[in-house]
Write a structure and sequence with these properties.
heterodimer, A: 223 residues, alpha/beta, six-stranded mixed beta sheet, three-stranded antiparallel beta sheet, 35% helix, B: 222 residues, 0% strand
Chain lengths: 223, 222
């Protein structure tokens, strides 16, 4: 069991102020906040792409984690080869690649070059790469920020499938609708600080801080 | 002047020129691409110095390279035993030294640009070091064609290095550029000009072919 993930007095430059946080197994976690609140940096600190300026990021035990970025990076090869690549780098057999493509509805495009796919299809391929790895934890950094509503729906369906399959979802978003649809609990980030953490129901119905309340109402945070 | 195109000797010269330059490009590519990728992806002390050095070495004067290789291969030199001086292999060695930095420096730039784009994704998947470098070489293959072509252009156009280490021996180490230099100094301008036209035509044809292949592949893979 990789989780819980513990962040102890973690800071990053001036972007993330020293914060302590524990991410437990189970219900999906949404990191919510305005642009520039530090969501992406916090995700990268947790995933290990950034080293904290101070403090410690510790997993309960080593295990498989994956991350899907706002802008998916497709390798210049076929759709199937992109998934096979992820499996090979992880030291796994390539068997599961086709099944992962079926899971996200891309099996019929398996032999197309990945770079000519639409934005929504590319993001689904990024999810297939993650799916094939069967991660215990999946980080998603604004996965639908540059997609249209129908592509967003498709991505959210796949994210729910991850959740149903027992993968812990940790997703950063500034999209309130998405946070409500996918989040079980909300971590609200404001200017590099966690100022509120609550179940999604509670966060949206009775936000405890004025900043969160303003964000939910769609008010500009500097008013 | 048209007679030269029917002469057997001319085609011998053309074949030797192409053989030497293509062999040099092959070796320089095998050395330069991994070197460029390693510098692009690697983080080590002195990395910026290496980048500056590689870029500067793109401008290596062929005669200086020729002289250095000459000293290495001459009877009294460290590699004199091999008896390679004034043979085509010596010319291949000199041209390889000349164009490896060109291919490495251009590859380094292309791969570093790609690394900036791919780094987070590749590290997230667990690819780093040589694995990431190989992935990037394959993913930038269309840009790297241009780097290799630049090396080929330099190799087929230079006179100084092959003149010094080859010696421009008729029927053995005479290539197009050294023949042109010789015929010009002898005053046979039509022959020199004819050879020049052939040289340019060959370089054009090679580049056009490479461009067509690259574009077709790029349309296919995006």
């Amino acid at each position: 069991m990789m989780l819980p993930l513990t962040l102890r007095e973690v800071s990053f430059l001036h972007i993330i102020k020293p914060l302590s946080l524990e991410i437990e197994a189970g219900p999906s976690t949404v990191i919510l906040g305005a642009n520039g609140a530090g969501k992406s940096v916090l995700m990268r600190l947790m995933h290990g792409l950034l080293a904290p300026t101070s403090g410690r990021v510790a997993w309960n035990s080593p295990g498989r984690q994956a991350m899907v970025f706002q802008r998916p990076i497709m390798l210049r090869r076929s759709v199937l080869a992109n998934v096979v690549y992820a499996l090979e780098v992880a030291g796994r057999k390539a068997d599961g690649a086709m099944e992962a493509l079926r899971e996200v509805g891309l099996a019929h495009l398996a032999h197309k070059p990945a770079r000519v796919l639409s934005g929504g299809e590319q993001q689904r391929l990024a999810l297939a790469r993650a799916w094939a790895l069967h991660p215990e934890v999946l980080f998603l950094d604004e996965p639908t920020a540059s997609l249209d509503p129908s592509a967003t729906r498709e991505i959210e369906t796949v994210i729910r499938a991850f959740d149903a399959a027992g993968t812990k979802i940790v997703m950063a978003t500034h999209n309130l609708g998405q946070a409500r649809r996918l989040g079980d609990e909300v971590i609200y980030l404001h200017q590099g600080r966690v100022i509120e953490r609550a179940s999604a129901d509670r966060f949206f119905s009775q936000p405890a801080t004025a900043e969160a309340a303003a964000f939910i109402k769609g008010e500009l945070p500097w008013d | 002047m048209l007679d030269i195109f029917t002469e057997v000797r001319l085609w011998e010269i053309v074949v030797l020129s192409l053989g030497v330059s293509l062999a040099a490009v092959l070796f320089a590519t095998a050395l330069g691409l991994p070197l460029g990728a390693a510098v692009a992806v690697g983080r080590f002390p002195g990395r910026r110095t290496v980048v500056v050095l590689l870029n500067a070495l793109m401008g290596l004067p062929p005669v200086v390279v020729g002289l250095a290789v000459y000293l290495l291969l001459s009877r009294a030199g460290p590699l004199g035993e091999l008896g390679l001086l004034f043979t085509p292999p010596a010319m291949v060695i000199a041209q390889t030294v000349l164009i490896t930095p060109i291919i490495a420096a251009l590859a380094r730039q292309a791969i570093e640009d790609a690394w900036r784009e791919y780094e987070e994704q590749l590290r997230s998947l667990g690819a780093g070091g040589s694995g990431a470098a190989l992935t990037l070489i394959w993913d930038t293959r269309f840009s790297l064609v241009t780097a290799v072509l630049a090396g080929l252009g330099r190799a087929s156009a230079e006179v100084g290095a092959v003149m010094i280490v080859g010696g421009n021996i008729d029927g053995v180490t005479r290539v197009m550029t050294t023949a042109i230099a010789l015929e010009t100094s002898k005053g046979d301008l039509p022959l020199a000009l004819g050879l020049g036209v052939v040289l340019i035509a060959i370089v054009l044809a090679l580049n056009a072919a490479a461009m067509l292949v690259k574009e077709a592949a790029q349309r296919r893979y995006g």
